Amino acid sequence: MKSKDRNLIIGACVICLMIAVLAPFIASKNPDGLEKSAQQISTTQPSGVYQAPFADYSIPILGNGPYSGILAMIIGIIIILGLGYLAAMIIKRRKPPEISE
Amino acid sequence: MHIPDGYIPLAQCVIYYVITILALYLSLRWAKKNLDEKMVPLMAVLAAGIFAIMSLNIPIPWGTSGHMVGGALVAIIFCAPEAAVIIFTLVLLVQALFFGDGGITTLGANVLNMGIIGGLVGLYSFKALIRPIGKIPAVFIASWLSIFLAAEMAAVELWLAGTFPLTTGLLLMGIYHSIIGVIEGILTVVVILALEKTRPDLLAWNRIKEMDNKKYTPNEVE
Predict the structure, then answer these.
(1) How many other C-beta atoms can be found within 10 angstroms of the C-beta atom of residue B125?
(2) CB contact under 8 A, B40 and A88
(3) Least confident of A63-72, B2-11, B64-73, B125-134
(4) Which of A4, A20, B67, B88 is the most exposed place for a label (fewest CB within 10 A)?
């Protein structure tokens, strides 16, 4: 991997980690635009047909505290980063680019 | 604006899944032709960044909150709405499966709103606005519009589902997301400016310019 790309990944990881650490403390607990609209004009409730393992971005055995949230976020970031890299490797262009450097 | 399970009847969810799968198929064909090696790390970090930023709910008036989505950002960076479709399918799938954010049955609808509508509106309104008002204002308005129209699309879907009444649904979703769109616009501009400064080679508009220059160098035009 080129050092430029390594820096991009490291830089992005640092930003993601900062968001992950800050989010449980600073993120608003208010409902988002869609939830708020639903509260005001709809009686439909989420069906809860599927229970996610880390529902509401928390780790069940760690309870609801900020550390639970931070860890859940870090797990999520690692999963997405890995899956994103893997997916992009699989779907990328096979041919070498026409213009070589 | 993640629609949870239970808000849309299954039969209608199927329609949104079909649209999303079709868009994903076209996007994968785009990737096979256009996504070169260099863009692989960018794709991965954008997906991770979008996942992270979506957790950061910023308070807006009326006891409501909102977060950045990033559909316009991805589409503008790659100059391709297809990239937004791929990244949002991945991020929304992980959010639904692991974190219960957005439903499993409504995944198709959520990809349609945030990835497909967000990406298409973001990129094409940016392209339409860049000449009359300049690059940065165009980025801001395009990303505002991408959130606003994605939210209105969700309102229409929820009306078809019988969950929201049409006019109040459009009105409330519109009001809340016109504020959330300002957050989206500011953050999109910040990310684009940061990339322009540190890694201009990653922005597709710079690469396209470069290719055009190469195409028209005198020794090649014979």
Answers:
(1) 20
(2) yes
(3) A63-72
(4) A4
Min CA distance, B192 vs chain A (Å)? 14
- Closest in A42, A76, A84 to B163, CB measured: A42
Q: Which fold has domain B10-212?
A: Arp2/3 complex 21 kDa subunit ARPC3 (1.10.1760)
Give phi and psi for B164, each to the nearest 5: -115, 145
Only one residue has tokens 């299954």, namely B10
- Put simply, the answer to whether B56 touches A27 (Cβ < 8 Å) is yes
The residues with which B64 forms a beta bridge, in sequence order, are: B60
- What distance in Å separates residue B8's CA from the closest CA in chain A? 10
CA–CA dist B156, B64 (Å, integer): 21
pLDDT the model gives residue B215: 53
Contact B13, B104 (CB under 8 A): no
Domain borders along chain B are 10-212
pLDDT tens-digit series, residues B135-146: 999 999 999 999
A34–B86 CB contact, under 8 Å: no
